[in-house]
Amino acid sequence: MEDSLLKSLPWIPADDPAENYHAAAKLSPWVSESFSGPYAFELANDPEALAGFGVPSSIVDSAERHPLVPATEPTPVGTVLRDRHSATGFGPSQVDFGQLSRILLDTACTSPAGRRGAPSAGALYPLDVYLFVCGVRGLASGIYSLDPFAAELNRLRIGKDPRTFLSETLLFQDLAESSAFHVFFIASFARQRIKYGQRSYRFTLLEAGHLAQAMIMSAQESGIASCPVGGFIDQEVDDLLCLDGVEQSVVYSVAFGTARRRDAA
Fold first, then answer.
1. How much is the pLDDT for 18?
2. Residue 104 belongs to what H/E stretch?
3. CATH code of the domain containing 177
4. Residue 11 to residues 6, 126, 173, 189, 203: CA-CA distances in angstroms?
5. What is the pLDDT of residues 184-204, one digit of tens each?
6. Taking Cα atoms as reference points, which of 35, 39, 62 lies closest to residue 50?
């Protein structure tokens, strides 16, 4: 019985491909510009490559075509989806704690029926949500973790000023300087690896996208602007939150704030 149970658990090799990829894909102050700079320069000077941006590879000229039936009027969900755009900065006004609470309750917290607002492979939920609060009316600035079962924010005993930390960690300074709060998604990879093995890494990243999109849509409905952010120094986040960067590590983030007047128009 015990032998069969042990054989059913995924074996993690010392040279683990998922861990190697995760480490190789991290940004740092020493490698981010040196890695991306040559590609950005080459792309900016390649008109053919620029012209191909956004062109799907699924279009086949010889295929039989069937135009989609046009909608008679937009649905509420469709309106939210089409109105959403990634903000490049935020206005000076604060977000209300009630607005922040609704975003978290709608998406990351469990409902009375035990459901959440984003799918998770095997309902294993490997992601934890941390918030860096800088401008929320009714909630003190600080660094918080979310308890999705109790629907509570726990203020962590971390002395670092959240705005200063964001400025030091994000590559996009306009977002760091003006966001009302910033959400980091922290993965505990073992919570899915126990069932899905190597494929769990892919599922964890997909789930981060699901949850981020759900939060962004909820924020859009409430009139809160947002911008998904993948440009951050991974180790800075991991170190601040006492994560080892292997079994637990940051994978994604989203900045939220009030819309600037020119963006809202």
1. 85
2. helix 97-107
3. 3.40.109.10
4. 9, 18, 41, 14, 18
5. 999 999 999 999 988 999 999
6. 39
